[in-house]
Write a sequence for this structure.
């Protein structure tokens, strides 16, 4: 039996997932990656430590599965998108990586005109964690570091460079730097909008397609990871794109929600026409498609916060999961109880970028009464996440649509059903716990077998659960959403 090894580097967790060539998940191994934060919006990673942990995770997964590394015939990488990973002329980190959820560049967006200008040019609603705004921030705050930067990478590119000693980017990432959505390339006009010298365009490596070869395992990487020298490494793509691929592929008009730290709500398009109304980030993608994406920046962050502050503070991931499972079982016992509390799930320092732009938006818990307790607050938090998804999709959901739900919460006992009830459509979760890694597995398989990507996806995608709207809750949630939206809109000026 032969295998594919995929690396999925999230914001705070690095995973290696090994599949057999039939795309059956054989092993998943994860390792915590410490994020450096403060109260001023900082979110960074130590790049050298990050690579050491990644290499260790790869080596450990091969050892744990007890397979001969010679049997791993392809490697692929995905990771958290945008941010800025700067290296010098000796290919060493200039500073810590700045991550996608770093909000320090929000000072550049005080004038809302900049959002409109970028949107008209690129089709993308730019957030503070995008690469070009961060570059501008560095040019203001860290001029000496800027002088040292020879290349600008992103998370997956840093991993792939350490595996192959080759520098490449991919078109899915470039499109949200922001880049030109039509040609998937960086636009000089973007640099001018941010008053950046256009020479900085030369800091970005050559762009390749996600399913092209990105190099081969070097002898140095082989010693650190146990992967065999000259094993091919696929370019890969950003984690959002990878999860879309793993969520049954990217087909016209397909609706996808990827819910983790961030909620990405996606409609697949076959053209690059910019919507008349700002609907969210536009990601260019594979197969000549574009992803019309609306994002609630704070997803499961809200659940974590409620648990840590209204329940026993979770000492580790397993204790948090135990609290969640107990809550969800209790929630089901109470038959999806109705509540007067409205929870606006915007728990982050950088505000909202879609479906509305307000850099000062905040999490709000509205409608508390003396009898309410931690159960009621967590219930409203779950409802708020579901309602925010409806807010993101707006009127673009039709009754006959199917929503493909992925991300950590797809395993929730109640949230998929809540989302189905709120949207009043069928919701499907997928038979894989690692859809981003699976998407990369599809890319590896497509490349090695010289088969169209769609053929691979159609062959191996399996649905896990199907959720149908529960008529009992429809009217209540319809009224709740109206209140939710009115509250959000009324607070816009107060924030």
């Amino acid at each position: 039996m032969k295998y594919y090894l995929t690396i999925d580097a999230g914001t705070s967790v690095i995973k290696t997932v090994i599949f057999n060539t039939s795309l059956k998940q054989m092993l998943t191994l994860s390792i915590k990656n410490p994020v450096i934060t403060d109260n001023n919006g900082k979110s960074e990673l130590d790049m050298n430590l990050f690579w050491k942990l990644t290499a260790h995770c790869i080596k450990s997964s091969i050892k744990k599965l007890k397979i001969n590394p010679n049997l791993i015939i392809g490697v692929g990488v995905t990771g958290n998108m945008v941010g800025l990973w700067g290296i010098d002329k000796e290919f060493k980190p200039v500073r810590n990586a700045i991550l996608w959820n770093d909000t320090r560049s929000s000072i550049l967006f005080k004038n809302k005109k900049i959002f409109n200008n970028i949107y008209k040019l690129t089709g993308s609603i730019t957030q503070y964690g995008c690469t070009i705004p961060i570059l501008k921030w560095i040019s203001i705050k860290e001029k000496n570091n800027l002088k040292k930067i020879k290349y600008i990478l992103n998370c997956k590119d840093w991993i792939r460079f350490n595996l192959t000693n080759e520098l490449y980017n991919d078109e899915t990432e470039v499109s949200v730097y922001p880049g030109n959505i039509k040609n998937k390339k960086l636009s000089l006009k973007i640099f001018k909008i941010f008053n950046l010298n256009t020479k900085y365009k030369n800091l970005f490596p050559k762009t390749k397609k996600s399913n092209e070869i990105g190099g081969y395992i070097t002898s140095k990487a082989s010693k650190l990871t146990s992967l065999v020298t000259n094993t091919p490494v696929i370019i890969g793509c950003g984690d959002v794109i990878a999860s879309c691929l793993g969520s049954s592929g990217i087909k016209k008009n397909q609706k996808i929600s990827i819910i983790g730290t961030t909620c990405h709500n996606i409609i697949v398009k076959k053209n690059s026409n910019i919507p008349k109304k700002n609907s969210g980030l536009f990601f260019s993608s594979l197969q000549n498609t574009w992803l019309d994406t609306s994002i609630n920046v704070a997803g499961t962050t809200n659940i974590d916060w409620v648990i840590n502050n209204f329940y026993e503070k979770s000492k580790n991931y397993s204790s948090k999961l135990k609290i969640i499972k107990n809550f969800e079982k209790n929630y089901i016992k109470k038959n999806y109880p109705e509540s007067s509390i409205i929870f606006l799930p915007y728990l982050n320092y950088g505000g909202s970028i879609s479906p509305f732009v307000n850099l000062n938006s905040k999490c709000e818990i509205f409608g508390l009464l003396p009898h309410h307790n931690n159960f009621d607050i967590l219930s409203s938090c779950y409802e708020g996440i579901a309602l925010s998804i409806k807010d993101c999709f707006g009127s673009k959901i039709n009754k006959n649509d199917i929503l493909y739900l992925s991300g950590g919460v797809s395993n929730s006992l109640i949230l998929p059903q809540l989302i189905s009830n709120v949207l009043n459509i069928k919701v499907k979760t997928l038979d894989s716990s690692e859809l981003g890694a699976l998407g990369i597995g599809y890319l590896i398989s497509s490349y090695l077998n010289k088969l169209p990507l769609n053929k691979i996806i159609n062959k191996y995608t399996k649905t896990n659960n199907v959720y149908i709207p529960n008529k009992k809750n429809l009217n209540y949630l319809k009224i709740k959403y109206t209140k939710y939206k009115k509250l959000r809109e009324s607070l816009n000026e107060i924030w």
Notes: The mean pLDDT is 90. The chain has 16 helices and 22 strands. The longest helix spans residues 471-491. The longest strand covers residues 13-20.
